[in-house]
Amino acid sequence: MTDDSVVTIIREAVMCIILTSAPPLMIGLIVGLLVSVFQTVTSINEQTLVFVPKILAVFLSLVIFGPFMLSTLEELFVTLYSDFVQYIR
Length: 89
Fold this sequence. Notes:
Helix content: over 70%
Low-confidence stretches: none
Strand content: under 5%
Largest sheet: none
Distance between the termini: 6 Å
Number of domains: 1
Structural class: mainly alpha
Radius of gyration: 19 Å
Number of strands: 0
Number of helices: 3
């Protein structure tokens, strides 16, 4: 196993992490920002108001983007296991 192959595996793993975590994080960020702007405009100072919409949005994003996230993870693991013989040499 060469240094280049280790760097390639790490790069693929990091890209997989970014691709699988981006949809829920971005949707949570957008919903939190919109609720915060709504709170600012209406002068509502309730701190728990952001929590419920953000949880629902993240859950909904997991339902919608779940198959994409699983296929991305599956692709990484299939690639790692199919090349496993090359890694142990």
